[in-house]
Amino acid sequence: MGTVMLLLFCGYSLGIWSGAKLILEKGYTGAKVMNVIFAVLTGSLALGQASPSMKAFAGGQAAAYKMFETINRAPEIDAYSTTGRKLEDIRGEIEFRDVHFSYPTRPDEPIFRGFSLAIPSGTTIALVGQSGSGKSTVISLIERFYDPQLGDVLIDGVNLKEFQLRWIRSKIGLVSQEPVLFAASIKENIAYGKASATDQEVRAAAELANAAKFIDKMPQGFDTSVGEHGTQLSGGQKQRIAIARAILKDPRILLLDEATSALDAESERIVQEALDRVMSNRTTVIVAHRLSTVRNADTIAVIHQGTLVEKGPHNELLRDPEGAYSQLIKLQEANQQNNRKGDGNARLGKQMSMNKSASRRLSRDNSSHHSFSVPFGMPLGIEIQDGSSNKLCDEMPQEVPLSRLASLNKPEIPVLVLGSIASVISGVIFPIFAILLSNVIKAFYEPPHLLRRDSQFWASMFLVFGAVYFLSLPVSSYLFSIAGCRLIRRIRLMTFEKVVNMEVEWFDHPENSSGAIGARLSADAAKVRGLVGDALQLVVQNSSTLVAGLVIAFVSNWELSLIILALIPLIGLNGWIQMKFIQGFSADSKMMYEEASQVANDAVSSIRTVASFSAEEKVMDLYKKKCEGPLRTGIRTGIISGIGFGVSFFLLFGVYAASFYAGARLVEDRKTTFPKVFRVFLALAMAAIGVSQSSTLTSDSSKAKSAASSIFAIVDRKSRIDPSEDAGVTAETLRGNIEFQHVSFRYPTRPDVQIFRDLCLTIHAGKTVALVGESGSGKSTAISLLQRFYDPDVGHILLDGVDIRKFQLRWLRQQMGLVSQEPALFNDTIRANIAYGKDGQATESEIVSAAQLANAHKFISSALQVSFSNLIASRDSLSMQSARHQNLLLSEVPTWEKKCRDMTQWLESVELSCQEGRSSAWPSPVRS
Hints:
The chain is α/β, with parallel strands linked by helices. The chain has four domains: about 1-65 and about 420-715, ABC transporter transmembrane region fold (Up-down Bundle), CATH 1.20.1560; about 95-325, Rossmann fold (3-Layer(aba) Sandwich), CATH 3.40.50; about 345-375 and about 720-815, P-loop containing nucleotide triphosphate hydrolases (Rossmann fold); about 815-928, 3-Layer(aba) Sandwich (Rossmann fold). About 55% of the residues lie in helices and about 10% in strands. The strands form four sheets. The chain has a six-stranded mixed beta sheet with strand order 6-7-8-3-9-10, with helices on both faces. β7, α9 and β8 (about 285) form a beta-alpha-beta unit. α1 (about 1-25) runs antiparallel to α17, α17 (about 450-500) packs parallel to α26 and α22 runs antiparallel to α24 (about 615-670). The longest helix is centred in the middle third of the chain and has 53 residues, at about 450-500. The radius of gyration is 37 Å and the shape is elongated. Mean pLDDT is about 75; it is low at about 340-395, about 875-880, about 905-915 and about 915-928.
């Protein structure tokens, strides 16, 4: 922009010099030269008003580059492609023919080398083997998530690549080991299995998957929201929803990746019976870790290091005592014997003690329930708090005062002062332009000898002021950009620090989903810069333009200045109304885009589930629907803004007309001179241009204020369970005695569902206690309460006789190690993930020792070029097997010796060879 204005001033200098020459040599009049100059002036002013939009164009181009790079990328496996074969139906015969494959992210680590396997139609085959042998990769290749580098995958004798991808996936049903649910209702999640499913079909699928019973107990039944990634449901409940989704699809090929691993014994039996009915006359591929679930399979295939080593029915494979399958069976039996010999089950009765009155009450309450159901009765005199008290307020965020943002920029005050000085210099240039031009007009009507002298002088002045503007504007932009960027960084750090210290309950609410929080951290924090960075620069620059213009105008002629200024409030009123309209629309639009962002976040993070159910169009339709509101709002805002700007310029030109009329009258009355009229008019015109440029910032300013309110709503909220607080007691030694005293609890987002009623449970130090029961009975909730993810509504949880709410929360959690059913690893190196067990301060030897203890060191340092420096892929990636994820999660725990270990179904989804390795590795660390 500085270069543009330098060229503009040079153009004026050239025009003045040329105009004077034409007047002297060719008889041109001053009026003709003035017409040309004012025509150029009008165009240049319009160009100056468009300058704020040029930055928006540049930003749009930068943002569009990556977007169009993604849009124009031709996927190797295109789900939208309409080319390919479509048959009337398929029988379901599958064949792997000399397949060679390695994951694109690890090309040096081959999974299959010449793998071949034939699966007859209508049969059930179970794939067994050690972790990393390639079992789940078979599923990925059948679903065509990847294509083999060499070899072929055939269905009914046809290469999988020849089929239309969407059509062939519609014939395949997948139930993964880690169930993936979307942030929608239970009915909508099940309906992903069939685009036009009726409510009756959805319910029938749920009943077949043994899910209808617990769904009916939900507050809204099938319309109950499952939360982000299904956080409102237990692991078993999520798995049954995923099974119902696959049943609804009615596929010819069914792929089960340990589909019943997360269910309790009774639910597993019922669901397995349902699956047996569904598998009838279908080709079924089962990836199994627990061999007890595959005995009835037609064929069992043992895979070792990407090679098929054995294949046959269960009884036939057992005939070879030295065979791979027999060895796995022996490993299973040895593991079960070790479990039976363990002290845990032998002393279970001694570890768990309930008071006698509670036991009697339980026995009475159990009379009408199934034998394994353990509902806790509500004692007299204990009142459960109303769930509504736990709900977060849905109040609109309070507007953030500008002084607060300014205080955050306090360290950059020297930078802002220097930037303001540069902005003031560039701002006063335009009012001075009025003095220069009015003197040029006067010179055009002077005698030739004065015209020649004055024209050269004023042409030189234009060059000087153009050079000053050229230097001051870049300096101002640079300094304000530094202040703005540092403010954004500071706000993002503050917000993220607050987010990670929020209680878990806060994340259960849809408005606080990962997509919405991500949008606030990225987009909203950047928008706040509109109040400090470039916007503040323009405010300072235009304010100096306004003040300088008023001073020059009043010094030249105060009467004409007052007449012109009397009409200015009309423009200001119009701008104020426009700003208020835009401010309201921008807040609504931002909230709507958060919903669309959440849909995109769910779809991308669960892309394999979306692909397996051919739900790309369904997700796109939902995303389009979420974007329709912001689109309509944007159109409405554009129309109102356009009308506002139109009225603004109509009033501006009305002011011009009135100004010239009043000036002519004053000249006629000899109260001023012709050059002074132009000086007043041009000075106030430049001041008006400054105001007009500032009005173009109202849209960005309103968005920035809305974004600041959204950001500081998080920053100002006090976490109800804050791990950053230093308040609370600590203990030099901790034995590990745990006691639940008359605990009653309901999840805040589901206040109508009682989880615990007067739960009493004692766990002695150094003992191992197993919590068993129906899916959704509260087993995992006990872990959540012990870790203080939530606090009980009534009752107390004691650790060594002290209420856990009295302990310093960070210290309390440092005494515990948690291994969840679904391992959560960060997108970082293996070394960094293990080091999280000791606040990232673990030494290399501690990391290696923890990995060895968790049976993870072998695959980390194997010859397959995996190392502690390897990056771990995203949560939905299959590039690292779930068992290895679990190994790494276990190795986080012993990095720092814990007094309490929380194991939430941590072996359910792990194959036997890894189970034995982990169980044998934990005799000493497991205390309670």
